[in-house]
Amino acid sequence: MVRRFLAAAVGVPALLGVCWWGAGPFAVTVTVIAAIGGMELIRAQRNAGVRPNVILAAMGLFGPALPLLAAHGSGGAHIPPSALLSLMIGLFLTGLIVEVIVAQHTDSVSSLASVGAGLSTAAYIALFGGISLLRSSSVVYGRPAIEGADVSFCVVLLVLCAVWATDSAAYFVGRGIGSTRLSPSLSPHKTVEGAIGGFIAAVIVGAVLGHVLLERAVLGWWIGAVAGIAGQVGDLFESAMKRELKVKDFGSIIPGHGGVLDRFDSLLFVAPTVWLLTHVLS
After folding, report:
1. What is the DSSP string of the chain?
2. What pLDDT score was predicted for residue 159?
3. Looking at residue 73, what is its pLDDT?
4. Most buried residue, 36, 108, 162, 274, by most Cβ within 10 Å?
């Protein structure tokens, strides 16, 4: 527990500091984090006897890097969508060509499995793009209450706090009064009581911060609700991957938390959902 607290005490201010700095630096940071997460997942798959196509897996980094590549106003390169699409198609075809070359020099051909593992890794890592896009979003969420802050910074802060509230409340409520197993086949320690506690905590924190940060309690309320549901689904999905790959943690880079994927599993489902809903409903 002490290691978890110390890691959070260092990591959280650092992440928020970069987020405050700007959308561009934040996208760079998230892309680096996503790359580490991708390497964790590739390593776990290889240890389980699966050979993901690394070129295809790397395509997932387009997600968190998108604000740098295409979104105006974030200090990025502003590459036209057609050029981005051409680059992605080129990488995809290169990955397939590599599989042909590998298949010619091995007795055990597993091209389909390799391509599938590479693409699924890319899709999962691309979810990091949700948090990058929220920071660079031009949607007007409200009026920032923090002097000198962008509205998008306040939204990212709100999302992060709602996710942390979900995780923390689910853990402590589950340990304190939890008795009904939520999903014994995936995560035997998670309980229904903990899940309910996590959802309630996320809604409360979201509503309070929505009012304090953006003067929009209703916006904070539904962001909290998304965090309370999607965050726990993301946690269970990662548990399913761990069970399939037979690993306890995806890494050990964050003391007390495990790897990057172990720490950001909930956020990977919450941030893209919030970004999608805000753009659909705006």
Report:
1. -HHHHHHHHHHHHHHHHHHHH-HHHHHHHHHHHHHHHHHHHHHHHHHTT----HHHHHGGGHHHHHHHHT-TTSSS----HHHHHHHHHHHHHHHHHHHHHHHHT-SS--HHHHHHHHHHHHHHHHTTHHHHHHHH---------STT--HHHHHHHHHHHHHHHHHHHHHHHHHHH--SEEETTTEEEEEHHHHHHHHHHHHHHHHHHHHHHHS-HHHHHHHHHHHHHHHHHHHHHHHHHHHHHT-S-S--SBTTTBSHHHHHHHHHHHHHHHHHHHHHH-
2. 95
3. 47
4. 162
Residue 140's pLDDT is 62
> Do 167 and 266 meet the contact criterion of CB atoms below 8 Å apart?
yes
For residue 30, how far is the Cα from the chain centroid? 9
**Residue 229: C-alpha distances to residues 156, 158, 200 (Å):** 17, 16, 10
Q: Count the neighbouring beta carbons within 10 Å of the beta carbon of residue 191.
A: 22
Q: In the chain, where are the structural domains located?
A: 2-281
- Residue 58: half-sphere exposure toward Cβ, Cα within 13 Å: 11
Averaged pLDDT, groups of 10, the chain, 282 residues long: 59 85 92 96 94 96 88 59 88 94 81 94 96 84 74 92 94 89 87 95 95 90 95 94 91 78 94 90 66
Report the pLDDT value the prediction gives residue 258, as an integer from 0 to 100. Answer: 81
60 in Cβ contact with 268 (< 8 Å): no
The predicted pLDDT at position 75 comes to: 53
Give the C-alpha distances (Å, rounded to integers) separating 47 from 81, 124, 244: 37, 19, 12
Q: Given this model, what pLDDT does residue 110 score?
A: 84
